[in-house]
Amino acid sequence: MAPAVENAYFTKARQAGRPVVDDLPKFDLDAYIANYRGKTRFDRLLHIGTISSLLAPEALRSALVEAMRGRDVGRYDAVLAAMREIIPKEPKNLKDLSWVDKTNKQVKAESDRLEVELKGYKNNLIKESIRMGYDDLGQHFHQMGDLINSVKAYGRMRDYCTTSSHVVIMNLRLISVSIDQGNWLAVQTNVQKLRSPGQQFSEAQRLSAKLSAAMGLALLASGNYKEAAREFIETDPRMAQARMDDPTDEEAFNEVMTPNDVAVYGGLCALASMGRGELQKKVLDNAKFRAYLELEPHIRRAITFFVSSKYSSCLSILDSYQSDYLLDVYLQPHIPELYFQVRSKAIQQYFIPFSCVTLGALAAAFDTDEQTIEQELTSMIKRKNLDARIDLVDRVLLANIVDARRKMHEDALKTAKNYERMAHLRILRMEMVNTGLEVGEKGKSGGATTLDSIGGEQLFSSPPTSQWLGEGVGRSLRSGARG
To answer: pTM of this prediction?
Structure first.
């Protein structure tokens, strides 16, 4: 449902090819955002405000309130710029200079205080105090939006960590900042450090759900859907039982994502990257992931329909929730590719029993029109996801049938030619050795070594000819000197 009067911002966004959501999502905005805390609340509200033509005013006003609760002036400027462009008649578009000046002064005063305290701790040479000083400074920089200095402060904590719990805290802080930076390689690196088999961290095992969720998010952002699915479906179910409204609950990870997000991210990645057998065994029958699927029953239904070969029902469920997924700040960039992969797998599975199918039958099976299914099939064939060809005259999709007998003959001839070539090279090598020709190069160890391969083919090893020749010449010279 498009708005009655199209906003100029969203018109330009469509012309530029950026996604715009015109339909209302299935969730209530206030109830949805209440599940999150920290910086992700603002990021999600701003994302919804700049992509949803219907929820934009409400989301941007909420984002403005969220920005003024914190100490990040940069976030306040960002939401004001978006409001001026999307809802120009909003009375709150005027910049509150008094709030900006007050916040900047508070931030500077806090920064100076923490740096003076840290300097005093360094003079006293108390490692625990220095570690805590860097920890406080890193959290302060994170809250004010200075993510680069926050990473530096947390990185300097490393030399002052004296227990395994200190190392776990430091890496969790770095993971959180790296997620806000969008530095997904750093997220994976810090998770792997806590999972290192050489170092056993009891605290890391207790927080394994957070590590799996963070690693899954990093892999999702990197486009590695198969590994992302494995991380999400192996997430410890303790997170699903966490209290979202309790900041002291260590199992909660709602400063980044909620258990519902784990179900959606893991389910979509699994649908896009796993076969029906894997989906049944690793997703539907997975006791760990079942706790998350119960929070999002539509994802479970979609996977069940796909496993049961009811592809149109699976795709219709995904299409009905597409608006919700596009409003997710982490999922939105990957929705086109994820949906394409799911539809491609469905079409592949549907086409397996047939040698030819009309485009009309395919379009009816997947609840679309012939032109759309033709474009999808063309894209799949170009990506080599489908071994078939399209007959545009008869409007038929034809499978590329492989002649098994001809293929066997071709493989046999290829094997015979390779055998003949290898035999020729071996005979050539034997003749070279028998005639006393040296075919070698100076080895790294300082001695003469022979080449045991010709043209990149590995041949049998033989004693170094140069060694035989050298010993023979040496004996002749010694005999001549004695004579």
So the answer is: 0.78
